[in-house]
Amino acid sequence: MAGADADLNMRVQEADRLRDAGRTREAADAYARALDLAPHRTDLRVQRANMLKDSGAAAQALDEYRLALDAEPDQADTWLQLGHAQKLLGRLDEALNAYRQALAHDPELEPARREMALLGDAGAQVERVERARVHGETGGLIGLVARLESLSREIAALKADLPDLTTLTALPPEAYGELRRLHDIPPPSSNQTPSPRIAVILDADCASPAGLEGLLCDLFDQRHAAWTLTAFGPSSQAEAIIRRAAATDRRVAWRQPPAAADPGAFEHELAATLDADLVLLLAQDARLHPAALAWIAWTWAETGAEACSFDEERFDPATPTALVRLIPRQPPDRHALMTAPTLGESLAATPRLLAALAPPPAGEPRAVRRSRLALDLVTRKAVAHIPLPLIARPEGADAEASAAHRRALEFVFGDQPDLIVEPAPWRPDLTRIRPRHVPADTLSVIVPTRDNLGDLERFIASLLAQAAQPDALEIVVVENAAGDQVSEVLGAFATPARLRRLGAAEPFNWSRLNNLAAATCDSQILVFANDDMCVLSPDWDAELRLALADPEVGAVGALLVYPDGLIQHAGMITGWRGATIHDGWRRAADDPGPAFRWATPRAVSAVTGAFLAVRRTEFLALGGFDAQRLPVGYSDVDLAFRLRAQGRKILWTPAVRVEHAESKSRGLDHLDPAKEARAAQERQVMAARWGEALKTDPGVSPVWATLGLPLQLLALPSAARAQAYIRKSAQSDLWRIAPPQAAHAAMD
To answer: Are both 494 and 618 inside the same structural domain?
Structure first.
């Protein structure tokens, strides 16, 4: 017996030595040899699982963790490590469940709570803040982070060393009231700007007496004093309130409309004729933050923008001081605004710009009028976006916004014989405008494949079944393997579409395979697609033709969803914690997102090459994908950036929905050392080629904390960050970037 114990001790010591030396795979085998002598030792099984996980064998590690938990189910740390393994494999729902089990067995296990918060569990994030406050930590941490925001470059390294401090000051949207209790909106940081005159116009008949009294107090509290309020309407009650205020402050005035005057026409006349630099048109029952006019004034003075939009917040109608929700907008986007009311009803613009617009028709409701105004402003001029909630309205105030927006779209476009205004096929509560006649462009779908015939056959079947014009379709399958298995698959389809195989039995190079196929096509549009897909949207080909008929658009991407219905891709976000990440990742496919972000076509930084459409002539003129320096990863982002450098926009659209079993054929790079090394080199190429363009995303507001999954945690930005974003948003060509750096621009 003593000899067996000695042998076990020797094996454990050897395993520990290999573990401490970082030789994880050998350590895993050594712990297995120790387990042969002591299969009851759960601690050794967990150590083996840890070593398997650390050596890249996460799937094997799962089996060991589960065996350990079968023996000792109350071990919180084992549940934690199981969650880490699930996370490595991309099984995020299972990882969350494991972290919840860890906390159930040890409520003090902070790493589990942190992982849950980073994976988007709102309850875990709120609980972390509550626990910190109970222990007296929150105030100090928030103060430190606020101070870090205002310090200069020499402490950038300190910020990098303290990532967890920011997680404690950011909260999920569900906890917005708590966030605003902790943070107020800062005033603009510069005092050197001119002091523009801002004229606030209010249709007083649309404001409740309590709302009108509150708005007057808001105006008197403004940090920017160069304002006037002109109210109008037939309400004698509203007139009495305004005239009482005017008796003590000359900036307030009441204007009585002529008998039977249309409110919209009267408002338009006022906006165009008031002696002011800017006009602020307010929505019903709108309230103003004390810094609202200061931010609007700063934006006009610093950027020259002739119009601006802003975020809004919602309050409990019974308790106006109880803030419950943020409406975090994004830079105004023409494509999105053609579908949903993404700007809101409160807008600021110059009198000159408003005077250039046609007056509204008689009887047009205010909400419809404001939607039409937003369309006019975005079509005519760049509209700056202030990423701060300057306006507050009661919860439920925008319940009819989508219906009002559709009426505005019908008014603007409904009488044009070549256009159709209709409910959006992917979301009927929104609107879609499309030409009556779809372009007849031919499409070539290029699909590289290797030993994945089942998925390939399913994908081709879905392409054909969902196409509006299969006779204008070509499908080119690039077989990246020896033999000719694909021909048999293609031969099984009876279709007017052209189906052909292109053999390329060579080392896998995604960019080269697609370039080879593109060179053999003569269609007007190329669609690059993975083989592990299934098209879910009818008329997907017509949607791509419509999108690329817009001369501003250079490439189009689709809504990709996992088989479980969660979003995999709603466009790409660049510069998210130093990386490029999928927007909307792991959110429900029917979640419209903040300000309809995942429910409207919109410009994005890039779209994934898993399903990407581009004009063939433009693709070839750019030299195709970079097969030499970017053989697998980042070729799609690089192509998008080259298009943007030429002034094209990259459009993401939910009108095309595709199911995607991500990396099913190729595997995950981070689990293969060779693939990870190649991916690291490709990241270096992109950083050298594109520099700052890769570090930022014009479409992401600074109200989103760059922590964990994208767009899941809110943190009100500092004045400096907000101002930098506003300057960018006011640019007339927001998405255009500088050409690639010369030393790294050549394509082979």
So the answer is: yes
